[in-house]
């Protein structure tokens, strides 16, 4: 049974790094020693969006992630397809049925073979409930070496509800924590001017509020757009908001 201590520990973390370290330890106690989490807020009908905008967290080794993520194999993964079409938890036993019924494409079969060679063969996937059509998050839990799918299913039968609850809490907590890459981090002043734009202030208003001239405000907004890789200030406000980089207290 999930304890109050486990829940409170996830709730009270102050960074994604701290949360991920705690969550991987919790999942390893259940027998899932390799996990891969991903979320996008920029999904379209034909794409998951720019990979640079994904939040991806994993404790898989580099040999696995360099190909699965770096080379884009995830785009052909059958359980990724499942996650995009469903919500909730799913045993990887479904892959055998997909294989036996010819429901897998050639690309999906290649991903299965790659995973087999990497020892990623038994596990569960969780597709989180989305609040918008453009957002989707999921996590893949891989059973430790030596566990087959029957053993993983037995673990899930006994502890599945609590594992699902902990992953849902971790997912929701990630959405509230600042997430930024070195390439796309905003400075304090850039966050500040974007925050005022988000509050509906004009360039002139912001200049008065911050005791700056309008040209300097424009410069900070331009640099924020460049850092976030967007064309308009409205897009910058949206992306900074999704990354939880706005209204951040500098402690």
**CATH fold description of the largest domain:** Beta-Lactamase
Number of strands: 5
Total of DSSP H or I helical runs spanning 4+ residues: 11
Question: What is the top-level CATH class of the largest domain?
Answer: Alpha Beta
Q: What's the alpha carbon Rg, rounded to whole Å?
A: 21 Å
SSE series: HHEEHHEHHEEHHHHH
Based on CA inertia axes, which overall geometry fits?
Answer: elongated
Taking the alpha carbons of the first and last residues, their distance comes to: 36 Å
- Range of helix content: 40-55%
**Unreliable runs:** none
Structural class: alpha+beta
Specify the CATH architecture of the largest domain.
Answer: 2-Layer Sandwich
In CATH terms, the superfamily of the largest domain is Transcription factor LuxR-like, autoinducer-binding domain
Overall domain count? 2
């Amino acid at each position: 049974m999930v304890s109050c201590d486990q829940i409170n520990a996830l709730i009270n973390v102050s960074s994604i790094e701290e949360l991920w370290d705690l969550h991987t330890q919790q999942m390893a106690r259940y027998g899932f020693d390799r996990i891969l989490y991903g979320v996008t807020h920029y999904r379209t009908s034909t794409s998951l969006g720019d990979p640079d905008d994904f939040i991806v967290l994993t404790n898989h080794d580099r040999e696995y992630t360099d190909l699965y993520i770096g080379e884009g194999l995830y785009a052909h993964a059958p359980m990724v397809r499942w996650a995009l079409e469903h919500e909730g938890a799913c045993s990887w036993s479904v892959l055998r049925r997909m294989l036996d019924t010819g429901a897998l494409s050639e690309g999906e079969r290649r991903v299965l073979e790659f995973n087999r060679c990497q020892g990623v063969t038994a596990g569960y996937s969780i597709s989180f409930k989305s609040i918008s059509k453009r957002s989707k998050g999921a996590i893949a839990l891989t059973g430790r070496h030596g566990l087959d799918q029957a053993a993983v299913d037995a673990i899930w039968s006994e502890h599945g509800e609590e594992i699902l609850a902990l992953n849902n809490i971790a997912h929701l907590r990630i959405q509230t924590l600042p997430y930024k890459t070195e390439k796309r981090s905003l400075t304090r002043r850039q966050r500040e001017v974007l925050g005022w734009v988000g509050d509906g202030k004009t360039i002139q208003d912001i200049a008065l509020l911050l005791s700056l001239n309008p040209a300097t405000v424009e410069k900070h907004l331009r640099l924020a757009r460049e850092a976030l890789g967007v064309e308009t200030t409205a897009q910058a406000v949206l992306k900074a908001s999704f990354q939880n980089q706005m209204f951040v207290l500098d402690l």
